[in-house]
Amino acid sequence: MILNIHPAPRRVGRMKRIAATLGLSALLSLAALPAAAECYADYKAKRDDPLRLHYGVIALPDPACASREAAAEAIAARIRVEGWTLLSVVSVFGEAGLDDEKRRESAGDYFLRY
Predict the structure, then answer these.
(1) How far apart are CA 73 and CA 53, in angstroms?
(2) Is the pLDDT of residue 87 over 80?
(3) Could you check whether the bond before residue 34 is cis, i.e. omega within 30 degrees of 0?
(4) How would residue 9 be classed by pLDDT, with cut points 50, 70 and 90?
(5) What pLDDT, on the 0 to 100 scale, is given for residue 34?
(6) Is the separation of the CB atoms in 101 and 47 below 8 Å?
(7) 29, CA 20 to 30 Å: which among 48, 50, 64, 83?
(8) Which residues contact 14 (CB under 8 A, 6 or more apart)?
(9) Is 30 exposed, middle or buried (0-12, 13-18, 19+ CB in 10 A)?
């Protein structure tokens, strides 16, 4: 053989095992991460012609929990689908805030609707 090129089966097998081990360890490390917790926000919105107002409570993904501005963007995008305009974000809170009966009663049909 002029170039002396032939596959090295032992190396290929070893590389497959290394790749499999790395892939498995990556999956296990992702599984060990804590689940991303949702946050919630209460907000006020309006719809024109005729003027209608509502107060609601909405579940938000974790990235929207970073600030009121991020929450406002997420809420506005979701409620816009049904013609609502966001007026204000009242507050952003964790799961414990869902136990507030006054908040639940005030939101009525708009409690976790969107």
Answers:
(1) 19
(2) yes
(3) no
(4) low
(5) 38
(6) no
(7) 64
(8) none
(9) exposed
Domain that holds residue 50: 39-110
Of 54-58, 86-90, 98-102, the poorest mean pLDDT is in 98-102
Whether residue 95 is contained in a domain is answered as: yes
Mean pLDDT of the chain: 81
Other beta carbons within 10 angstroms of residue 111's beta carbon come to: 16
Is residue 86, in this structure, part of any structural domain at all? yes
Residue 19 lies in a domain: no
Residue 65, in any domain of the structure? yes
- Residue (of 82, 32, 76) closest to 68 by Cα position: 76
For 34-82, write each residue's pLDDT tens digit.
344 589 999 999 999 899 999 999 999 999 998 899 999 999 999 999 9
